[in-house]
Amino acid sequence: MSLVLVPNPAASKKTSEFKTKAKTAILMDPGANLILYEKGSEQPIPPASMSKLMTLAVVFRELKAGRIKLDDTFTVSEHAWRTGGAPSGTAAMFAPLGNAITVSDLVQGVAVQSANDGSLILAEGIGGTEEGFVKMMNDYAAEIGLTGSTFVNPTGLPAEGHVMTARDLAKLSRHLIETYPEYYHYFGQKEFRYRDRFTFRNRNPLVWAPIGVDGLKTGFTKEAGYGLVSSAKRGNQRLILVVTGLEKKNDRERESRRVLEWGFKSFRPFRLFEDGQQVSEALVWGGEKHYVPLVGDGAIDLLLPASATGAVSGEIMYQGPIKAPIKKGDQIATLRVKSADLAAVNEIPLYAGEDINSSGVASRGIDSLLVLAFGWLLSR
Hints:
The protein is α+β, with helices and mostly antiparallel strands. Helices cover 28% and strands 29% of the residues.
């Protein structure tokens, strides 16, 4: 399914009545690219350890590119040990000073235990210095459109100017899920056994609950309060939730569960077209055929409030006629879908359903005359 939503500033009445005690929050359906709920989602906040998602994004990119491997080792520096390890009194995996630790163990330490020493060891091993790695974080964030984020360290420990927004945290989570599926499982790993001495339990309380949550990251500092980025999947639907600034540790679990339940119950997909089903057709110029069939990228669903009763309308948008040759799979049109039950317009890319080869010169001349004489009367 390929579905892109263009948000409307106005929210539906039912959505606007929903409330959360979180300071900022956002609930996203990434499959529909739909924001189901938001509260102060573009307000910069101290993200605490939730910013380790950006740390791991850089690590996963290096792994995927083959520049590092999971069985590579990085040495525990005194800076990493003192700033994020046992002497720091913060969340740590207790990596011994001077030891060589595998990237695999470090990734698990960060994802499961939120280890500050693990974050710093990875940063120094990949970036050469902590500062070098932080530059990589900021550069990567800019590449993927995290416009409200600035990183000062790889840990999320309090630092002036180290900020993110709830919207950026949701966008980053989606990027991790879609770009690094081979590494995403670390966020849902319930336990991590390290050095046959420590067993760390995942700090995300929702991965232990039978509600479909398989990631991502907790965060807490006195300044930031309690926060949680979570993602849950039920059937074919996935939701990503960010809540921040909660006063109590239990609040982030209760609020996250409540908002996720609301999201799954309040919205549901409506099937518009089956996989491969022709949606419409577009006019072709200079082709062996005058029309090319239009299809979606798989089945096309529309996400609407579960109580939706209004009619759904749509229109096909494209710049045409489309010049041949056309390759099957070329994106050539957009289906704009409107519903009385959702204050948004869904824009769904449409693709050529078959190849259309170029025709002879005479045929192209006839097509030109028809377009000049009748314009869009050829469309149907």
